[in-house]
Structure formats: structure tokens, C-alpha cells
Amino acid sequence: YSMLIKTMELLSYDFSIGLCERHHRGKKDSPSGTMKEMLSIIGEMEKKRSLLFEKDTSVMRIGEIVGEHKASFYGTGEYVEISHIVHNRKVFAIGALRAALFLQQNDVGMFNMRDVLI
Questions:
Q1: Distance between CA 73 and CA 15 in Å, rounded?
Q2: Is 23 annotated in the active site?
Q3: Long-range contacts of residues 100-109, Cβ cutoff 8 Å, at least 24 apart
Q4: Mean pLDDT, the chain, as a whole number?
Q5: What would the mean pLDDT of 11-40 be, rounded to a whole number?
């Protein structure tokens, strides 16, 4: 999430944003929690900078893809892209362990993965 925030801070207001996620055909939630969090971050940045970004989202449930998320920033004659591709579900288990360690040190409050990862 920190890369999304930093990119949005660095780019000018005239960039539009495309968010894309792809997961395996059996994934039930659509959009995923990650996509919802990315949209939340964009909303927070819009409030912080008092502007609206042109944005579009794409959600696919296809094949055996473990997980892919991409944020594309389109400007005039250029674009910047950030992507996160998971090839193995062990990545999610490691994230769950990191969250458990975080909770062990921060036992009071309501948290999400952005708190753990930033």
C-alpha cells in the first residue's frame, strides 16, 4: 500500500488511475479486500488533495491465478505501473504471521493489513 500512496503523492493531479486484479476462478469475494483497500487509499488521497482522480477498475476471476493486483497511472504520453503478483499461497500465510506478531505488540484497537505493512 505504501507504494500506491507514495506514487499518488509524487504524480500530478492530471493522471488517471486504473486498478486491475486477477484471481483464480474459485475466489468468492469480488472485488477483493485488497482492491477495496486500494480504492479506500485513493479516496483518502482525493480528500487530502481536494480533487477527484479519473479512475476505472477491472476484476477478473479466471484460471488458477493466485493473485495479481496492478495500479496504473496514465498521464499525457506516459504511464506508471505498480504491480504485485503472487505465485504461491505461502505469501498469504507469511502475511497472517506478520499480522499475528503485530497484534501481539498492539493489543488495543482496530487494525487492517495497511497498519501491519506500513
A1: 6
A2: yes
A3: none
A4: 90
A5: 92
5: cell is 500512496
- The predicted pLDDT at position 19 comes to 97
Catalytic residue of the set 6, 23, 24, 55: 23
Cell of residue 118, nine digits: 506500513
27 is a catalytic site residue = yes
10 Å Cβ neighbour count for 92? 12
Annotated catalytic residue: which of 6, 24, 27, 70? Answer: 27
Alpha carbons 88 and 114: distance in angstroms, whole number: 21
Which strands sit side by side in the sheet containing 16-23, from one edge to the other?
Answer: 55-61, 16-23, 67-75, 78-86
Identity of the amino acid at 73: F
Q: CB under 8 Å to 1, separation ≥6 — which residues? A: 37, 38, 41, 113, 114, 117, 118
The pTM for the full model equals 0.80
